[in-house]
Amino acid sequence: MSAPAVSLVAMLYVLAVIAAVMMGRRVSLWRAGRPMQVDWLKGIQALPKRYLVDVHHVVGRDPFTARMHALTAGGLLAGSGLLLLAPLAGGFRLYWALIALLFAAMLAGGAMVRKRRTPKPARLSGGRFNMLPLLLIGYAAGCFLVALDAASGGWLWLLAWPGLWLAAAGGMGLVLQLDRGPMRHAFAGALHLVAHPRPGRFEGRRETALAPLDLEAPRLGVETPADFTWNRLLGFDACIQCGRCEVACPAFAAGQPLNPKKLIQDLAATIVPGGTNAAYAGSPYPHARAVAGVGGPQQAIIGREAMIHPDTLWSCTTCRACVEECPMMIEHVDAIISLRRHETLECGAVPEKAAPALAELRYADDAQGRPLVARTDFAAGVPLPLISARGEADILLWLGEGAYDMRHGRSLRALLKLLHLAKVDFAVLGPEEKDCGDLARRLGDEATFQRLAGDNIATLARYRFRRILTADPHALHTLRNEYPAFGGHYDVVHHAALLDELVAAGHLAPGALALADVTYHDPCYLGRYNGEVEAPRRLLDRLGLNRVEMERHGKRSMCCGGGGGAPLSDIEGETRIPDIRMGQAAATGAGIVAVACPQCTAMLEGVTGERPEVRDISELVLMAVEAAASPADNRAARQPEPVA
Amino acid sequence: MKVTVLLSAGLHPVSGRPCPAAVELQAIRLAHTLGTPELTGLHAGPAADAVRDALGQGLPRLLWLETAVEDDPLAGLVAALATDRPDLILAGRQAQGADDSGLLPYALAKALGLPIIADAVAIEPAGEGAVHVVQALPRGARRRVTVRLPAVVTVHPAAPTALPFAFAAARRGTVERRAGQAALRSGAAIDERPYRKRPKLIAKAAAGASAADRLKAATESAAGGGRLLVDPAPDEAAREIIAHLRELGVLRR
Amino acid sequence: MSTMRLRRDPRTERAAHRIDGTARPRFDLAAAAETTGGRLRRNPRAEVERMLVAGTSRRRLDRSQRSVSTPLHIAAPAETAAAPRLIVIEEPAFLVAVVPDAPGGRLTPHDRQMIGAARLLAEKGGAVLALLAEPCEEIGPAGADRVLLVEASTGYDPEGRSASIAMAVDGLGVRHALFPESVDGGDIARRVAADLGEALFAGAESIAANAVTRASRGRRVEQRRAPPRLISLAADAALPYAGAPREARALQDDPMPTVPTRRAILAAEIIPADPARVPLGEAGFVVSAGNGVTDFDGFRAVAAALGATPGASRVVCDAGLMPRAAQVGASGTVLEATCYFALGIAGAPQHLQGIARCEHVVAVNTDLHAAMIERAGLAIVADAQKVMPALLAALECETETTA
């Protein structure tokens, strides 16, 4: 081995030791968190698959970045790893040639990192990140030169010595970044994949249900970083500040004081004793409310005197767009709900308009204190069988709180008519149906949610039915994914899926509608939370409609602003989220926005001015079925009826 | 300062389930504006389900005098307050759960020999042994009354909204249960039936009012049919509006 | 010129011409018979004539005069020509006392309703006695037979006032005493009840000689009983007295003496409502801005000059031009105002829900067919943005002339 090569290997061992110390320091910080059982063996076994498949599935949405990351990370890890084997294989020139090749790849990756950042897009962070391309290029170039020299048998010693210095400087810089800088994501991210709080995500399971809270616990929710489990803290450190969440976040787009990236960085900053948010160099919270910006493992996170302003917390619509976009598999929504739980349950510090809604849920089982018997008023004339009169039904129709709304009542009436036409055996709970608890849970009021869930599960246990049908994706998610933790296991189907089934089986015969172009707006709680993006589209296609897609659709759709109690929190921003979404719908040139959720209907119908019509999928299907039944009126049915 | 808030067994107006009376929760919030008072809730009745939730809305402790359903709570409350001697007794404008007549605070004040001030929307300390009570008058006007303590003050629904409910605080609060006093309710037999909403008698064209009032009431029916000026000059429109507002008596200058 | 004329009634006319005393009907059509009968008939020409606004070159109609032409009012002069007889009750069988709020000696609508209710209770030979804090002219026409001054001691002394009233109620052997369930009236009623150690039938929602009803147990139960001695009456639960004026004779020459009380109230001052800061739900006069308003400083100046509480439509609040607390409508605040002045608001259904309880509406809007124009008592089809400065100028001009 040549002298520069020996020195490089020695230096690498020194760097490895320093890196271990740096990582150890970070690990010791995570230990402040609450204990959590992790299946290490399974996690480590699954790591390659989780990294190569699941992470790159997300990263690959941006092919340039995917190539950049593959080259940089691949070169760095493989090259440095191989170099550590030099005491064994250092005598072979082929070995050094291979290393040179790997570092050449890393060098190319480093150049791409640089290219991506010039000019720097708004979503990427500055600060320590500005050094990153230089350090990567320096380390890669240095190692490349030394390895090339060794491969050539010492012919290039003139280049090898400066290369060694370059590698030392770059390597040292990278290692020192392991603690606070960009390189932290490498080891925290890998560990996060191993010890992920929702391992089911990697096994194709729907891991979108919130975890139940033990209401007997001494402290409810998360007040300080130490109240998070240790692997959640680890998750915050995994953030690479790529800003994909920031681009996806509807609250950020509407100018509300929330930026998921900054939120995670703020949380990561509080892990360190005496931590501040001063080092953050990405986009701030829009219209950020003033906070002290300090924290520590035992200090409160939320508050004007702490790290995060409550308005930031209450801006979230729980749409999970950030989670969907995060390449590091960070669970932003879980963190927000945990923090909200503490605010609501321990401090009673809920947004002004949310407090009366939660009170009504507590005492009247409806967020607006409306009588439960009035839930079926919308049906007005359409027969609506009560399950209490029969004891059983094939399908139990869960009406949800949208039934009280005049506008959504029309969609539900259309659904009822279709069910009658298809001769479906269905019934409703009527006055026995209480709010499913979605709103209470997203607002952090786990106590009310658990009571409502318990009551509803007890009611449902009294009746026999095969499936639950609902037109409300929030109720669907709650009943399907969150009630099982409380002993309620149901087969829940969304009305779009059932209508698709009925049409496919020939129970409904829709004619072809000759309407304006239709664009389908995916409800977050159906698309992202439950992965149901195909049935509604298939159904629309069966109606012979010309369907156009918005740029953001399917699992990457944008929220209407109606989830997570956001309409109640009503945090001031620049624009309203539904206005943005309606703008995207209008940009497709579609004349109709098809929706499949009462919240989306309400939010999008609230948009003023020239805009596409809002139609629930059931209304469109009914129009098609009626058009088929009376072809003479086909022409008359072309214009959607105006909404009062 | 020792403050006691009287709590009644409220019922939710729609569901009919026990729930704290809103205005009493507002009373708790008003008590908090007096610095850090020694705050106690006091309830006399057969059950404390409804009242217990007040512990989550700013009340640290609750004294529950357990009585039978048919008992008049007054005697027990008077006895408890006479021994406890709080500086300030707060009550809602109208308690719930029994007759809802709003008479109890007055009877209590009479029995304890204390002054009573009604319809507070704010209470501020006013030196030693006195408080300023701001009373709600119609149309947003207020009356600021300085009253010597101890006193009974009832709270108006226009007071600041109650502190939001915190589940953990409700869990932490303490309930002290004592036997109440048996005292039969007095009064004539009253016929009771389910409540039925009556249409309000709208006395628009009040026949007993002066002819001018009748004319006014008839010409300004709320259901439209008023005057319509199409495209007047702005000055003319302004003159018309001012004259009209003055006629309605809302323009006071 | 009368806007009414009599409708011809041919039958009566013929009957007037009939010559009496013949077996066969015979008529003397030449005789000028007096047309006595006939129903009143609208005279549209005369109505239009009356509505003409004098002094303008263009023909303009003042339609606020429209309802003058209802038969009720045209019939009135004939009746009022003979002064209405004063109803006097010399020897009342019993007394029904009323305790009106009568701020500044003027009866409120609630007071009038209460006196109307008292008349129902005094039907069989009773007399209505008004216990007044200060003399009141309107009390006789409003329906009181007797008046007794219960003078308040100086300042705010509800305790002293209630003690005097209790003494009067007890001393005069009053059968029923009625109070308005208003802020001050409700307070006095309960104080009197506590002084007398009696139950109060609080907030009666219907009242008749044989039964009164009220809501209890959180408005889930209706209590019903024969009228007890002390009753307080909810607003809009009875019609005001509509009969001929009553005598309002002073029951005794001297007012009731005030009862000395231990003055626990050290001071009291009225703080008048500041229209700019009154919560919308309590405000009496609200001026509201909608899409048709772009200059919000100007709008706020108009609100201040009018002495009105500023409000806004949802669109304006969403745009952040006015605070969220100013939003009027179903999702904002539901108003209880006497007058609502809408500038540039078309009147979405949700918005109209928010002003359903407003007595008077004034609207300025460019769209003649807007729902708000339909709803308004005075509707002006014009650009609110142009009317606002004119309003400001007119109001400023007025203050200058008065100053």
Automatic annotation (TrEMBL), chain B:
Presence of keyword Aminoacyl-tRNA synthetase: no
Entries under InterPro entries matching the protein: ETF_a/b_N, ETF_b, Rossmann-like_a/b/a_fold
SMART domains in alphabetical order: ETF
Domain Electron transfer flavoprotein alpha/beta-subunit N-terminal: 3-182
Highest taxon of the lineage: Bacteria
Keyword terms, alphabetized: Electron transport, Transport
Keyword Transport annotated: yes
Pfam families, per database record: ETF
Family indicated by similarity: Belongs to the ETF beta-subunit/FixA family.
Name the record gives this protein: Electron transfer flavoprotein subunit beta
Organism of derivation: Ancylobacter crimeensis
